[in-house]
Amino acid sequence: MSRDGSDVPRGGGATYLGMPAFPRAADFPRAADTATRDGRLRANLRHATHTIRAKRARAVAELDDWARLREAGAAIKDRTLRHLDHHLVRLEEAVTRAGGTVHWAADAAEANRIVTDLVRATGEREVVKVKSMATQEIGLNEALAESGIRAYETDLAELIVQLGDDLPSHILVPAIHRDRGEIRDIFRDRMASWGRPAPEGLTDRPAELAEAARQHLREKFLRAKVGVSGANFMVAETGTLVVVESEGNGRMCLTLPETLISVVGIEKTVPTWRDLEVFLQLLPRSSTAERMNPYTSMWTGTTDGDGPRVFHLVLLDNGRTDTLADQVGRQALRCIRCSACLNVCPVYERAGGHAYGSPYPGPIGAILTPQLRGLASPLEESLPYASSLCGACFEVCPVAIDIPEVLVHLRERVAEGGEVTVRGTRTVIRPAKRHATERAAMRAARWAFDHPDALRRGQRILSRTRRLQPRRLPGPGRAWTDSRELPAVPAESFRDWWARTRGGTS
Fold this sequence. Notes:
Radius of gyration: 25 Å
Protein name: (4Fe-4S)-binding protein
Distance between the termini: 56 Å
Structural class: alpha/beta
Largest sheet: 6 strands, parallel
Number of strands: 14
Shape: globular
Pfam family, one: LutB_C
GO molecular function, one term: 4 iron, 4 sulfur cluster binding
CATH topology of one domain: Rossmann fold
Keywords: 4Fe-4S, Electron transport, Iron, Iron-sulfur, Metal-binding, Repeat, Transport
Number of helices: 23
């Protein structure tokens, strides 16, 4: 999927050693407009998301207590977020007791500096990585590359993205936008420049592609002295970190290197092992539609003769504290990155992940990215509108994040503008002209509903002139009809229908 316009980031932006940073799209509507014209992309997304959502529905239906598990997950997350300062201190103490070193990073720049310095201190110039959205969020690969350090992605889908000089487009399946033929061509053309080449005569059979990736990565696992990971959960009670995965690459990254550096968002904390049990039931069924993940790796500090000799934990804020301060928006921090909301979203299914201009695509990205980054550009301002508000995302979320509620809340913030604090810096959001027009339209609608006689006369005039109505609205209304069909005016108004069928006038 080559990039065919400046508004759709699919491999554009600054590229360092084959892993491009996410460039900022102009805004979601323009990026999505270009993406939806790609027939191959839409076919790949439709097939993949429908398959995943059907499997998930069957896996969830097996549990009679799914609704109670969901409520428990939401309650644990909310309780933890309310006392996050306490749990983070407890986590730091436990990690330190177990032989690890904890670093605090206020933003992406500080996190990248910490990791880069730690790798430099080892004298190594390459690292292996287990899939990590936090490191994508901060652009760690690019920061390492600028210091002459090469990062090798080892998750199969992330490997495909990296070799293809591409960008991830899904939380669970980063290469969901690629089909088997494209993956085969990427392996044939690019593997040799990154290490072991693809075997001769490679076909697009999944087993052959997986074997080619396995052979390519094996030499990197055996050679690497430094591993970089994220974590799905951090248990404050014991300082234990948890990674769940399906391939085994994570286990290799977490156990073979001499030094392990984990970069984790502060919201991934859970207080106790008992709390962890709930999420180890919720996550696999919502993400991969499995009863449990094939690989669940847990590590607590360091142990002589077993695993890495040195362990560093980088706790990442990067806008999370600001998000926590918003009583409505903070529920986005419950997210356990299962991707269920992406797989049911009609907008994501058609536009794909790259249109969101962020490592966090889909409905969760539409509420998380604007809060982590702040409503600082047209892209972030447009993301809360990247939804039909159908509510399917809320229905499948395993921790009951009311994404439509947060979307409407963020739309209100965009429309109203005003002063906000983003990472300690006070910023003024100035409502765009389209928002001023929207407010004027809402005021006009309010007046009409307050004056029923005027509303009735207006409805009757519109019904009698339906043949003259345009397919597109003029002026500011064009922004609405550029991406939607203008509804046809019905033959009679609801008021007239009610009077005719019920015999009343009100």
